[in-house]
Amino acid sequence: MVDKKEVFTDTTTDGSEIPADASSKIGEKAWFVVNTYSTHENKVKSNLERRVTSMGIENLVFRIIVAEQEVPVLKDGLPTGKTRMKNLYPGYVFVEMIMTDYAWYVVRNTPGVTGFVGSSGKGTKPFPIPREQVEPVLKRMGVVDESMYDRYNENDYVKVIYGPLEGTEGRILSINRETGTVELETIFFGRATKVEVEFSEIERI
């Protein structure tokens, strides 16, 4: 069995090595995307969760998300009253992690993982997904971090990305972090109208 403390190490700015189990001191949490075979996303998620526990890297790999949404089942264009889960990004699993040599090794060698998005595949670590790109995905999953609120201010113009008012654009009048709601001023039938939406439903324009 490979001893991760002896083999998989990272380097500090002064060149000294840090054991993998202490590597949470370097770098920060970020979101990465791994490739999988289509329809195998949930299986890969389960495999990753088990490996994170068995390999003892809960301090390096955190949330693992398959971007699914419940959607109505239609027949002849009409709702049937039934629903199904739709994968918004087939072939991809989103992983929040601190990218170290050992964490990278564990994730990319998990059964079902075919690679990382943003990696050349030549031994170079992948780049994290920019926050502005991953945020809409997380919001669709109902995942809202406190840090997301810092990107929004009164008078910012936003667009509702899903929900009953999907596609609506408006100006932020107020943000309530306690309730997770936002009051917008938008135009309905030529008149300025105030509407309240969930913070998770908006994205900056």
Structure, described:
By secondary structure, this protein is an alpha+beta fold. The chain folds into 2 domains: 4-143, NusG, N-terminal domain (Alpha-Beta Plaits, 2-Layer Sandwich), CATH 3.30.70; 148-204, SH3 type barrels. 18% of the residues lie in helices and 38% in strands. It has helices at residues 4-7, 41-54, 101-108, 131-140, and strands at residues 9-11, 17-19, 30-36, 61-65, 68-75, 78-87, 92-97, 113-116, 157-160, 169-176, 181-188, 191-198, 202-204. The strands form 4 sheets. Strands 12-11-10-9-13 form a 5-stranded antiparallel sheet. Strands 4-7-3-8 form a 4-stranded antiparallel sheet, sandwiched between helices. The N and C termini lie far apart (51 Å).
Name the features.
single chain; 205 residues; alpha+beta; Alpha-Beta Plaits; SH3 type barrels; 2 domains; 4-stranded antiparallel β-sheet; 13 strands; 38% strand; globular; disordered N terminus
